[in-house]
Amino acid sequence: MGGVLRATATMAATPDQVFDLLTDPARHCEFDGTAMVGPAVTSARLTHVGQVFVMNMTYRTGDEVEHYMSDNHVCAFEPGRAVAWATATHGDAPLGWSWRHCGSWHRPVPPAEPKVTRIPGWR
Question: C-alpha angle 96/47/92, rounded to 5°?
Answer without folding.
Answer: 30
